[in-house]
């Protein structure tokens, strides 16, 4: 008795669930794209009569809240951390713009502490962020 044996079996990829996988991948990509990676501190912006727009691509943001708390790009920091970060940014890219974003009710001595650090480091590319009237 002779048995017919097939030696090669064809490789088969099931395509029934490919649309489900593509749909789940699309949902995942859409959700990840909606995440805002910029950390912000809730402050009330001061107003100015004239304001210039700067690009937000190459900058370091120092936030100062109403109580005088310091934040580097949305992360709480001390005055020494601000000095280290500014010195590090200046070494890597001297043309990086520094944005000081302070609440309109922040005491001036808190802002002055940051400005003294910038003066000591001779950092000259500084902007104060304000709200247009």
What topology emerges from the helices and strands here?
Blueprint: H1 18-33, E1 59-64, E2 70-72, E3 75-77, H2 79-92, E4 97-102, H3 108-120, E5 126-128
Parallel strand pairs: 1-4, 4-5
Antiparallel strand pairs: 1-2, 2-3
Helix pairs in contact: 2-3
For the termini, the CA-CA separation is 97 Å
Q: Low-confidence stretches at least 5 residues in length (pLDDT < 50)?
A: none
Q: Helicity level, as a percent range? A: 25-40%
Number of helices: 3
CATH topology of the domain at 59-128: Nucleotidyltransferase, domain 5
Overall CATH class of the domain at 59-128:
Alpha Beta
- Per DSSP E runs of 2 or more residues, the count of β-strands stands at 5
N-to-C series of helices and strands: HEEEHEHE
Mean pLDDT: 79
Spatial strand order of the main sheet: 3-2-1-4-5
- Named CATH architecture of the domain at 59-128: 2-Layer Sandwich
Fraction in beta strands: 15-25%
Radius of gyration: 27 Å
Notes on the structure:
This protein has 133 residues and is α/β, with parallel strands linked by helices. The chain has a domain at 59-128: Nucleotidyltransferase, domain 5. The protein is built from three helices and five strands. It has helices at 18-33, 79-92, 108-120; strands at 59-64, 70-72, 75-77, 97-102, 126-128. A five-stranded mixed sheet has the order 3-2-1-4-5, covered by helices on one side. Strand 4 (97-102), helix 3 and strand 5 form a beta-alpha-beta unit. The chain is elongated and about 100 Å long.
């Amino acid at each position: 008795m002779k048995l017919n044996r097939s030696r090669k079996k064809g490789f088969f990829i099931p395509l029934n669930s490919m649309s489900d996988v593509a749909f789940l991948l699309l949902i995942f990509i859409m959700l990840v794209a909606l995440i805002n990676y910029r950390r912000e501190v809730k402050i009330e912006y001061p107003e100015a009569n004239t304001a210039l727009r700067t690009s937000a691509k190459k900058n370091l943001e120092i936030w100062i809240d109403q109580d005088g708390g310091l934040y580097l790009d949305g992360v709480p920091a001390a005055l020494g951390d601000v000095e280290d970060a500014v010195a590090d940014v200046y070494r890597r890219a001297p043309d990086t713009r520094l944005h000081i974003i302070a609440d309109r009710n922040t005491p001036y001595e808190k802002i002055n502490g940051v400005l003294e650090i910038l003066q000591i480091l001779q950092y000259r590319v500084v902007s104060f962020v304000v709200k247009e009237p």
